[in-house]
Amino acid sequence: xxxxxxxxxxxxxxxxxxxxxxxxxxxxxxxxxxxxxxxxxxxxxxxxxxxxxxxxxxxxxxxxxxxxxxxxxxxxxxxxxxxxxxxxxxxxxxxxxxxxxxxxxxxxxxxxxxxxxxxxxxxxxxxxxxxxxxxxxxxxxxxxxxxxxxxxxxxxxxxxxxxxxxxxxxxxxxxxx
Length: 177
Fold this sequence. Notes:
Layout: E1 2-10, E2 15-23, E3 48-52, H1 61-65, H2 68-77, E4 85-89, H3 123-137, E5 147-152, H4 154-165, E6 172-176
Parallel strand pairs: 3-4, 3-5, 5-6
Antiparallel strand pairs: 1-2, 2-4
Helix pairs in contact: 3-4
């Protein structure tokens, strides 16, 4: 898997948003488990998983703490998962990064993010900006059957809110605490 760190402009939030995108590598060098890995041919599209972090995290939580890209590599190599694009965004609409990682300093994490500023929009209101960016920049399927959203703790609440506000985008939804 290849990890890309991107910035997109959110019209809903009126600012740049950090997004991490994990893409499957289009070669067979990942075949360290002896599995027959087949990546999409020209014209085919990847399924997409939107993976949301818990309170106190940001777009880096799943890749630095959860090692999501390594776990997915192993699942794909053993045939337990299909190659897919995984998108991780900062779920705190009023924060540029996790506590201690930006100018607000080491504030106490909460389900409402940094308490010193009110966001221009909620996570679920700004989520279409992330989906539109991903669908215009990556080789992903745009139909409901090939989209999923899930999150841990606060991210589970966000996935619920996003799916409630926009029931059309995701076939699969999962919340975890």
